[in-house]
Design goal:
single chain, 232 residues, alpha/beta, 9-stranded mixed beta sheet, two-stranded antiparallel ribbon, 7 helices, 25% helix
Length: 232
């Protein structure tokens, strides 16, 4: 299975830190945020990695190279700055990811201890996506989706007594390339509408991750995570 790390965001909320450094290269616990992802992927044998980039993307390529130091093979999918959004970026990288087999996608600006080795086995036959969800954090109390067992539904699908739980999307998902078939390469597209359409057709599964997850979206969260990881 191939993995893709999304690293094309501008990181506006992290300015001025991201004026000169791409957000996924900001250091936490003594190494760039992206490297925590790479080390986890390498540890479980997911060797083929695609990274998209836009803002200061040359720095990402210079810092990570071909991935050989981690035993990985890294290929890059460059984008114009701020152009393609999440689904557009994934669709643009499909020639590198392949059009047949499912692949793992991770947001480059999160820290999470979810076991990436699970990615190869969690997508149900026929489903288009499997999402890793987390309990709603203080900065996002309304959540993104509802989880009932393994089924993921969009807003408003939870009803009293259904057992559905409001959750936040972690930024980790396993997708079939067919989910992105309707997106023209090079065109911007958001991920949420694609997922909601697939959810309406009952083609999205999910799981709740109760371990460590941080959306490194503000300088304060970066400082807190740096202190936490630095003490390990």
């Amino acid at each position: 299975m191939k993995a893709m790390i999304l690293a094309a965001g501008r990181g506006e909320r992290m300015r001025p830190l991201t004026d000169d450094t791409p957000k996924p290269l900001l250091p936490v616990g003594g190494k760039p945020l992206l490297v925590w992802h790479l080390e986890r992927l390498a540890k479980v044998g997911l060797r083929e990695v695609v990274i998209n980039h836009a803002h200061l993307g040359a720095q990402i390529e210079a810092a990570l190279g071909d991935g050989a130091r981690w035993g990985l093979s890294i290929r890059y999918s460059p984008e114009a700055e701020g152009a393609l959004e999440t689904a557009g970026g994934i669709a643009n990288a499909l020639p590198l990811l392949g059009n047949e087999e499912p692949f793992l996608v991770l947001n480059g600006d999160i820290y999470c201890d979810w076991d990436v080795a699970r990615a190869a086995n969690v997508l149900l036959p026929g489903d288009l996506a499997h999402l890793v969800l987390v309990p709603n954090p203080p900065q996002h109390p309304q959540g993104d989706f509802f989880l009932t067992g393994r089924a993921v539904g969009a807003d408003g699908e939870a009803t009293a007594g259904s057992g559905a739980q409001s959750c936040t999307f972690s930024g980790i998902g396993i997708y079939r390339p067919q989910l992105f078939a309707g997106i023209r390469r090079g065109r911007p597209a958001q991920l949420a509408p694609l997922l909601r359409t697939a959810m309406a057709a009952r083609l999205v599964s999910g799981e709740l991750h109760a371990g460590r997850w941080v959306d490194v979206g503000t300088p304060q969260r970066l400082v807190e995570l740096d202190a936490e990881l630095g003490s390990l």
